[in-house]
Amino acid sequence: SILLPSLGRIRDQAAATKCLANMKQIGTAFTMYVNDNKGAMPYVVPDNFWKPWSARFYGSDPAPTATAPAAHQINNVHRHLMKYLGGQIRNSPPQTNGNLVTLNSQIYRCPSAVDYVFSVDYRPFEFSNTNYTFNGVMMRRKTTDIRKSAAFIIASEGRYAWSVSAMRPYPVANAATWPTADLSTLEYRQWIWHESGVGAGFNRILNLTLHRKNEAGNVLYLDGHAATRDYRDVRASDFGLTDSANPGQGLERDTFAQILADPIRTYRAKLR
After folding, report:
1. CA distance 61 to 8
2. In 67-174, which ranges are continuous DSSP H helix?
């Protein structure tokens, strides 16, 4: 009984270290993608089934038929980076009519992550299994748009492993308007991911709380370095957000407390 707390801390520290290594590999892949795409950061193809901030790993949109081929494969940030991390395409896997990328779960998932089991639509399975979310502020932008790459969080880890590529914060725009939305006026929400009703004990903050007894989480920055951050010390500005243009909405100095009080609070992007 005396050793159990120490063993628990050692296991958590080992998982956090492995997770940091994962994020550094993802950061390297991110840099390679940017270099191959003239400074453009990875994007999400709007998915009419999900939303521009949460795309499936698998299938096509719309679904292919004998007389109407798919308009495009559904793309997301995880999928764009996978080719730099040793990913593969499998044909006709279960649960889809199209091709899909096989994720390397050892890179895209922290050992401490918990399977999301509260909805069949989100449960991870062999082909899509990750607890890392990317920053929606970066979509449709270039790295030159970001003033301080060492202070701009591009990815953070969540408590749950999902079957979708989620974005947090995400743009307040639907799939139809997202591709042409005016980025200078677009608002974003949920840099702290707060959800209710997903299970006893896990119904407050879902990201940045996987380590140190649910008080810290790992994040990846645009310059490629990764770090463990206490969720209480993170601000909206760390995700490239600033004051909303709408009265009574988010401020760049907001902490987790403001999101817990108002989960749909919105912010404007703070760029050059």
Report:
1. 44
2. 77-82, 105-108
CA distances from 252 to 124, 134, 148, 267 (A): 33, 19, 15, 8
Residue type, 56: R
Residue 9 phi, psi dihedral angles, 5° rounding: -65, -40
> Measuring CA to CA, which residue among 129, 159, 152 is closest to residue 240?
152
Bridge partners (DSSP) listed for residue 89:
101
- Identify the helix (H) or strand (E) that includes residue 22: helix 3-36
User: What are the E-state strand segments in the chain?
Assistant: 54-56, 60-61, 72-73, 88-90, 100-102, 114-115, 130-134, 153-162, 164-166, 170-171, 187-189, 216-221, 226-230, 241-242, 266-269
Model confidence pLDDT, tens digit, residues 191-224:
998 876 555 444 478 889 889 888 999 999 999 9
Residue among 1, 116, 127, 152 nearest 59 (CA):
127
